[in-house]
Each structure stands twice: as C-alpha cells, then as structure tokens.
Amino acid sequence: MMNNVLAMAPIANNNYVAFTFFVGTMAMMAASVFFFFELSNVEKKWRTSVLVSGLITFIAAVHYYYMRGYNLDTGESPVFFRYVDWILTVPLMCVEFYLITKKAGAKIELLWKLIFASLVMLVTGYIGEAIYGNETQSWVWGFISSVAYFYIVYLIWFGDVAKLASNSGAAVAKAVKILAWFVLVGWAIYPIGYIAGTAGGLFGVRIFEGLSMDIVYNIGDAVNKIGFGLVIYALAKSEESSKLA
Ligand SMILES: *C/C=C(C)/C=C/C=C(C)/C=C/C1=C(C)CCCC1(C)C
Description:
By secondary structure, this protein is an all-alpha fold. It has one domain: Rhopdopsin 7-helix transmembrane proteins, CATH 1.20.1070.10. The protein is about 75% helix and about 0% strand. The chain is built from ten helices and no strands. It has helices at about 15-40, 45-75, 80-100, 110-130, 140-155, 160-165, 170-185, 190-195, 215-235, 240-245. Helix 2 runs antiparallel to helix 3 (about 80-100) and helix 7 (about 170-185) packs antiparallel against helix 9. Bound molecules: retinal.
C-alpha cells in the first residue's frame, strides 16, 4: 500500500517537533498571502523584490506541509525535503540582495558568487546530515559548509554587497544593514541545529545535545524567511526609498 505522507495524521499535544512543522506551515502560508496581496500597494520598482519574498515563504509553506506529514508518519527528520526547500529558497535570498543593490550598480557576477557559495554551504551540509549524520566525521562537512557561510557573511558585511550598499540611498543602505544582521545572527541558528542533530557536534565535541534539530531549523526558517521578507517589504514601503534609492 502506498504511504500517503500528506494524510492528516493527528498531532499528539506533546509532539513539539510536529507542532512546529504545523505552525510553520501556517506562518509561511499567511506570510505568502500577505506579500502577494501587498504587491499592488508598493511602488513598481520594488514589486519584484516583494514578489520574491512571497515566493520564498510560499515555497517554504509547501515544503512545511509536506515535512509535517513526513515527520508524523515516520517520526524522522525530513532531511531531504528540508534541503530541497533550502536549495530553492536560499538562492532566492541571494537574488534579493542582488535586486536591492542593483540600482547602485551590482553586477550579475555578484549574484553568481552568492549563489555558488550558498550551494557549497547547502550541499556539504546535506552530505554531513544525510550520509555522515551518525558518524563523528559529520563535523568535517559542517566545517566546510561553515567556510562557505562565512564567505557569504564576508561578501555582505565587507565585500561587494557592503560597498554597493554604501553607494545607495539611505533607505537601501539601512535595509542592507538589517539583512546583513539576519545573515550573521539569524543564519547562525542553523549550525546550532546541525551540531545538535549530527553525531560530529562541534569539531567532535557534542554540545546542544538534547536539542531537537528540527525545532531549531523551524525557528531559524520562521525568523529568516518571514523576517527577511518583512525587511524588504518595509524598504518598499518606506517613504525615503522612493526618493533616495
Ligand atoms: C530559508 C532557509 C535558510 C535561510 C537556510 C539557511 C541555512 C544555513 C545558513 C545553513 C548553514 C549550515 C552551516 C553554516 C553549517 C552546518 C550545516 C548547515 C547547512 C546547517
């Protein structure tokens, strides 16, 4: 018989992992509806950016719905679908950085650098979880992934993105600064989940043990996908952005 992971299996009220998948689905859906409906209320030049915010939360909503069912049916972490979601949504976040700095002269190479680094970060993270998740050497993959992550942080804080943002109007510069904090602090939630959920821990030292990897990832996604989108939305709505960007 086919195992229908989309069936509405009941969530026991002490199953916090499944509960956060459930709440995550709702939050991502609500955010998508909001971003899509607000498209007509922002100035034309910001529409693509707000549309991309909506696509990010929409893609996540569909994955969360699926991951909730998968987790309820199997009791396991939906590693594969988690990474499919990220491989689609993280490059779209790179697109956001590109779109908002484009007016200050961002070149397409910048977008490719960001996307390439995020693919390295995610593919090595996936290998570490899916193949070496139960082995001590998972830390090696987490480490390589972190190098790519720090390169993204570098590009945004000190590299091309930062330079372009400083040549933009005040509104764009401010938004890029807030998004840079998301990448530095918000994205740092994910390695905590990885350390908690794989055998390798931090260089083989197990810290955060007992923490649920999925709950940590679900919190990270809510902060980063919805919060990130709202920063873009606020930029699109700010009065200054129409004059100075
Ligand atoms: C919407 C999804 C987002 C913003 C996902 C971001 C994911 C990361 C920043 C993941 C980073 C990782 C490391 C830096 C090391 C360990 C492995 C990862 C993939 C969890």
